[in-house]
Amino acid sequence: MSKAIRFYETGGPEVLKFEDVEVGEPGPGEARVRHTYIALNFIDIYFRTGRYPLALPNGLGSDAVGVVEAVGSGVTDIRVGDRVGYLIGPQGAYAQARVMPAAVLIPLPDGISDRTAATLMMKGMTAQYLFRQVYPLQGGETILYHAAAGGVGLIACQWARAMGVTMIGTVSTDEKAAIAKANGCAHTIVTSRENIVQRVKEITDGKGVPVVYDSVGKDTLEASLDCLQPRGSLISNGTSSGAVIVDSQMLAVKGSIWFTRPAMMHYIQPRAHMLDMAKELFGHVLAGRIASEPQQTFALADAADAHRALESRKTVGATVLVP
Fold first, then answer.
1. What DSSP string describes 205-224?
2. Residues paired with 20 in a beta bridge
3. What is the pLDDT of residues 94-149, one digit of tens each?
4. Cβ neighbours for 203, distance < 8 A, ≥ 6 positions apart
5. How far apart are CA 210 and CA 135, in angstroms?
6. 242 pLDDT above the threshold of 90
7. Average confidence (pLDDT) over 37-66
8. In this structure, what is the dihedral angle of CA atoms 198, 199, 200, 206, given to the nearest 10 degrees?
9. What structural domains and CATH numbers belong to the chain?
10. Residue 203, Cβ neighbours under 10 Å: how many?
11. Is the pTM of this model over 0.70?
12. What does residue 300 show for φ and ψ, rounded to 5 degrees?
């Protein structure tokens, strides 16, 4: 028997229940993982509230790290005792232990702790696919990145610096601006008192930027479009302020803008590619170019409180749950 967060209806954080669950033995192609740290992501809120539908009742959470306790038949590249992490697969990472498809498990290198790795699975791999695949940065660009002090944002700040990319990052407070700059963000825009478009034009001598990475959505859509150069790219990688509705004619009027709403699932497969992505990310961490640690920690039983903190924008960087 193990403990896990379950929910039976969509709604506020109060719908999350901490319950006993049966874990069982892994079947063919599966492994049982005992979690050490579980990541909190904004997408978890989308599932909890029903923005992204799930069949109920269900578990919650997409990524975690831990130790393999048992493997099923046919599993050859994952062994009992291996430290692993994952970021795709069925919902249900908010648990002390669970059975997972072995094909989604990523071995962790010795030089990276479980605590650090918990901030890298979804968040670090998101930075990888945004910067290296969706709009492959070459170095030398000036980019706009919204929510620069968030969990993905702080990794993106460091990755941009490592690549020689000038990152303009939006944040909500001066405190978050200082944190983003300390992590490599070249310029910050405090949205509570500064105009995004005006500041971007000032920083770029009126040119605008070739790409905007926008995880905020509805509240920043117009500003994002107005910051782009003609034929620029708007990467909509989140909608924390609300869904984005784009009129194709508007894209033409704003400068023949390219618009995409990427999903990790389409950039991370097959398994060999996923492992290569992780290798690149871990290489930056082991070389000291990217440092990532949880800034907030909650007990698994207090997942509802963690959701309240994330929704209220009180968090900075990554948040993890401890089983």
1. TT--EEEEEESS-GGGHHHH
2. 3
3. 999 999 999 999 999 999 999 999 999 999 999 999 999 999 999 999 999 999 99
4. 142, 168, 187
5. 10
6. no
7. 96
8. 60
9. 2-119+293-322 (3.90.180.10), 123-264 (3.40.50.720)
10. 19
11. yes
12. -55, -40
